[in-house]
Amino acid sequence: MRFNTALLHSAAPGDKATGATLTPIYQSSAFYQESALQHEKLFANKAPGFSYTRIGNPTIAAFEDRMTVLEGGMASVACASGMAAVSCALLNITQAGDEIVVSTGLYGGTIDLFHDFEAYGITTKFVDINDHELVKAAINEKTKLVFAETIGNPKLDVADIEALAAIAHEAGIPLIIDNTVASAYLTQPLKLGADIVINSTSKYINGNSDAISGVITDGGKFKWDFEKYPGMKEFKVFGKLAFTAKLRNGLFRNIGACIAPQTAFYNLLGMETLGLRMERACSNALKLAKHLEEYKDITVNYPGLESSDWHETALKVLHNGFGAIITVRVGSKERAFSIMDGLKISKIVSNIGDTKTLIVHPSSTLNVHSSEQEKKDANVFDDMIRISVGIEDIEDLIEDFDRVLKEN
Ligand SMILES: *Cc1c(COP(=O)(O)O)cnc(C)c1O
């Protein structure tokens, strides 16, 4: 099946028992068991089934299966948020004394999380992910993973996933990619060599901004060295699914960062139109970026523009478009604020991936906990506005920007 067909007809197409065209919401915390023996088997991973929704639920499983197909992986674990997914995935294979090598262009919340890791003895080395010599130099025998975003939010750098996978694999460590901003519509990181993919499904997957969630998808191809990852040894019997088995039997269930069945339902519904929405939003973003570039007093950053430092990499990594996020530098924080206040269609919201166009001033909000150097490395400036372009009629978006820019 091709992309849009798979979104409608792949894994979990509705409910076999009743013919319902949508997977029902199993709004139940727990499930009856046929017998005590069956229950014992369930807990020992020796029988399929459901026991308690923190660990698994049919609606959630349907969403996980569709995410696995979407990202071309082996298995997925849905979590309470994108942040929960990043936390669980990384802590699943790290312990005190370990190091991780990550991109400077990450989402502000993720940078904050890596500072929280310090209290647990996990040290983060931030590097420009496109400087491959720096990435190699940052890796040592304590390093347990490389982490980057396909398209950095809001740096809008594009990671050369194939090259990074080769560097990570040479060092015997996995590459974990946050694919939130690109989504599988633009690229499937697992096909390019990444080992684990994370999505904040609060964004493009859900599509309508009606619920928070995140998903970890396991490619199942990484060869775990059990000396280097002692915690994985116990899960060797699960073969290709060792990473997911460890997660499900450990940190994920014990931290309790489960997704609600209702949210899984919203996501299953929302993701049916992922292809259509991305096609429109990417096309709108390219048109808006090109239009704004004509203003001499504005600097536009968008991977789809030839002026972007990451245009070449974008052409290699992304298909069907360049994403729907643009950042613009307008000269001063004051001007940024008056432009934001003046726009009528684009709303001030700290979110991306909505059907509606959203604007934010990252420096004073999303990245407010970052140091000045961290902001600089993440291309976050005082005069910068991030635009998450929606699926409105592009003429209306352009007219709104033109009117405000004439007044400011
Ligand atoms: C929003 C976002 C996250 C965090 O996801 P939540 O669902 O808000 O917890 C992580 N990474 C990226 C790239 C994001 O845009």
TrEMBL record:
It holds the Pfam family Cys_Met_Meta_PP. Signal peptide: none annotated. The modification N6-(pyridoxal phosphate)lysine is found at residue 203. GO terms for molecular function: cysteine synthase activity; homocysteine desulfhydrase activity; methionine gamma-lyase activity; O-acetylhomoserine aminocarboxypropyltransferase activity; pyridoxal phosphate binding. GO terms for cellular component: cytoplasm. The keyword Cell division does not apply. It comes from the Bacteria. SUPFAM superfamilies: PLP-dependent transferases. One of its GO terms (biological process) is L-homocysteine biosynthetic process. Keywords: Pyridoxal phosphate, Transferase. InterPro entries: Cys/Met-Metab_PyrdxlP-dep_enz, OAc-hSer/O-AcSer_sulfhydrylase, PyrdxlP-dep_Trfase, PyrdxlP-dep_Trfase_major, PyrdxlP-dep_Trfase_small. It catalyses: L-homocysteine + H2O = 2-oxobutanoate + hydrogen sulfide + NH4(+) + H(+); L-methionine + H2O = methanethiol + 2-oxobutanoate + NH4(+). The keyword tRNA processing does not apply. Its cofactor is pyridoxal 5'-phosphate. Belongs to the trans-sulfuration enzymes family. This is homocysteine desulfhydrase.
